[in-house]
Amino acid sequence: MLEVRNLVVRYGGITALNSVSITVPKTETVILVGANGAGKSSLINAIIGMVPISEGSIVLNGTDLGKILPYDRANQGIGYSPEGRRVFPTMTVRDNVLAGASRLGRAGQSAIYEKLADLFPMLEERANHYAGFLSGGQQQMVAIARAMSASPRLLLLDEPFLGLAPVWIEQISKAIRAFRAEGVTVLMTEQMAVPALKVATSGYVMRTGHILRQGTVDELRSTALEEEYL
Ligand code: ATP
């Protein structure tokens, strides 16, 4: 579904990604594991067009994303939940989530909201609360639900577990599995290899702009990832 080939991303003199290639097959959940500065966010941001590609290509379902302007990439079926969540703090939970569904009519928005609330009950309980007052785990759910409200085929999650207590990680993992069961393809980054390997089907280990290892979850689990690489 998604093919990243020999991708190079530079910020001035800094090379953040140095010829990175990954494949994300349809309906799989692929993780990019790596420590701070490995280049995980740069890869996600290159896919959505937030950082320019210096070399290489990103092809989604046969479409070269490098030829599509960033604001048109959402039309390609890409949903994105950023690192650090970035919810709109003075908007309600419901308005945050439906910010991703502005193209739907009122009935369509209600239907998608109900569907997402089945996965994240707090969306129902806190619908009218300001997102800025929520806990980190709840804000993460709002950010993921916002990305899913546009019904993407490819969901990009940048460090969805960062700083969260195990109880929230478990709920978010359950939702990611449910998305996959519905046919959504997921690419997620994580520093926390252990919980990420529980939701993924395959993955890549990154360090300083390179892919160090790749494999199925079982293959990656058999190595002491965190000790060796992170
Ligand atoms: P983190 O978990 O900290 O976000 P990461 O694996 O996502 O780490 P990136 O954020 O992609 O890594 O950073 C990769 C490299 O690029 C790092 O050396 C970082 O300092 C550098 N970098 C990232 N963004 C910029 C920027 N806007 N300008 C200059 N250098 C940057």
Question: Describe it for me?
Answer:
GO terms for molecular function: ATP binding; ATP hydrolysis activity; branched-chain amino acid transmembrane transporter activity. InterPro entries: AAA+_ATPase, ABC_transporter-like_ATP-bd, ABC_transporter-like_CS, BCAA_Transport_ATP-bd_LivF, P-loop_NTPase. This is Amino acid/amide ABC transporter ATP-binding protein 2, HAAT family. It comes from Pollutimonas bauzanensis. Residues 2-230 form the ABC transporter domain. This protein is an alpha/beta fold. It has one domain (2-229): P-loop containing nucleotide triphosphate hydrolases (Rossmann fold). 36% of the residues lie in helices and 27% in strands. It contains ten helices and ten strands. It has helices at 40-48, 70-73, 93-98, 106-119, 122-125, 136-148, 166-181, 193-199, 217-221, 225-229, and strands at 2-11, 14-24, 29-34, 55-60, 63-64, 78-81, 154-158, 185-190, 202-207, 210-216. Strands 6-7-8-3-9-10 form a six-stranded mixed beta sheet, sandwiched between helices. A four-stranded antiparallel beta sheet has the order 2-1-4-5, covered by helices on one side. Helix 7 (166-181) runs parallel beside helix 8 (193-199). The longest helix has 16 residues, at 166-181. The protein is globular. The model has no long low-confidence stretch (mean pLDDT 90). Residues 11, 14, 16, 34, 36-42, 83 line the site of adenosine-5'-triphosphate (ATP).
